[in-house]
Amino acid sequence: MNYRFVVAGAGGTGGHVFPALAVARILRDRGHEVLFIGTKQGIESRLVPAAGFPMEHIKIGGLNRVGLKRQLQTAVELPVSAGVSTGILGSWKPDAVFSMGGFVAGPVVIAALLRRIPIVVMEPNAVPGFTNRKLAPFVYRALVNFEETAKWFPPGKTEVTGVPIREEFFKLPRKAGGVFTLLITGGSLGARALNRASRESWPLFRKNQTPIRIVHQTGAAEHEALAREFAVAGIDGEVVPFINGMAEAFSKADLVLGRAGAGGVGEIAAAGMASILVPLPFAADNHQRKNAEALVREGAARMVLNDELSGERLFREVENLRGDPETLTGMRERVRIFARPDAAERAAEVMEQAARQKNSRKQ
After folding, report:
1. Which one of 106, 211, 285, 300 is separated from 50 by 20 to 30 angstroms, measured CA to CA?
2. How many domains, in total, are found in the chain?
3. For residue 18, with 0-12 CB atoms within 10 Å meaning exposed, 13-18 middle and 19 or more buried, which class applies?
4. Beta carbons of 25 and 52 less than 8 angstroms apart
């Protein structure tokens, strides 16, 4: 039997959108229809249509780590967006809703509750975000990345699946030879600390005559300035605002420097990449540091704290690893123990279970 599903909670970042797309693709491959709900301003407005999925838009902003003005705007937008979402669900008539959390999910899950539609949430962090914490008592199932997250949800409602990762990351060929390539990515929106350290490292690599290629995803905000400086830095590589084909970029890299969000770490594990992780210091419950420390304990990654990152530190860490191929190989082998190749598949199965239960009540 074919079902209709709604996916919500893109939240404006790749960390929300890419796992949601991984699940949506499997649902589509199984013959189901999938509709996304997101914002026009978020990255989902570009990535979701590009993946071939229909999308409806609502207007909503965040509540956490934003100013009072933004909080007040969100308070006004929430009931309006919940009303719009209720109308969308009424027209689409989904059998279940999949939520990645984030501020976009709030109005959609409120609408799903009002229409008595089963809700499956994906919580990648040790401590759930605001939306998933408030939603916890009402979920059909919570799919989590850490055992410890279960305490935030009713007993028997959680399942440890890991974070859904796009299938292509599990099938990447290993880079063979060529110039040593460093891939720097601060996520879809970029990261100022990584951008600054990268810029500061260029003269050091040049002075050392290091045979290296640097590919740097900066985010849109700082791309223009960094691209101008990189053009005259005397370093091989490229500086881009966003990398559409991150899996392909991984396949051409020897080492990744990036944040330690659950989605990014999941992609690194799936692809078997050696990495230097710089946890975002403002992440809720310091979950990015916990993600990085888990890999470091297994010898699967290196970690540099955000306030310790500089151009000189970046240069030293990269040079140490570039000159130690045995350690790089060990990191690539050990990081795969953190990969969850069936996470997206299992999420799709749970969505089908929720849909079957909903429809059985009608009969």
Report:
1. 106
2. 2
3. buried
4. no
Predicted structure pTM score = 0.83
What is the SS3 assignment for 165? coil
DSSP per-residue string spanning 303-320: E--GGG--HHHHHHHHHH
**SS3 at position 142:** strand
CA 1 from centroid of its chain's CA atoms: 31
Judge if 203 and 132 occupy the same domain. no
Residues in the chain: 363
Does 157 share its domain with 278?
no
Same domain, 141 and 21: yes
Q: Encoding tokens for residue 202?
A: 């260029």
Instruction: Say how far apart CA 221 and CA 351 lie, in whole Å.
Output: 37
Tens digit of pLDDT for each residue in 270-280?
999 999 999 99
228 and 159 together in one domain: no
Per-residue pLDDT tens for 247-270? 999 999 999 999 998 889 999 999
**Residues 194 and 275 occupy one common structural domain:** yes
Q: What is the CATH number of the domain that holds 159?
A: 3.40.50.2000
Type of residue found at 44: E
| 158 and 285 inside one domain | no
Contact present, 258 and 275 (Cβ < 8 Å): yes
Residues 6 or more apart in contact with residue 77 via CB below 8 angstroms:
59, 60, 61
Domain extent for 69: 4-165+341-362
